[in-house]
Amino acid sequence: MNDRITQALYKTFVRRGFATLRFNFRGVGRSQGTFDNGIGELSDAAAALDWVQSFHPEAQTTWVAGFSFGALISMQLLMRRPEIRGFISVAPPANMYDFSFLAPCPASGIIVQGAADTVVTPGAVQKLVDKLRTQKHITIHHDEIGRANHFFEHELDDLMHSVDNYLDMRLAPDSPIR
Question: If one looks up domain 4-52+61-171 in CATH, what number appears?
Answer without folding.
Answer: 3.40.50.1820
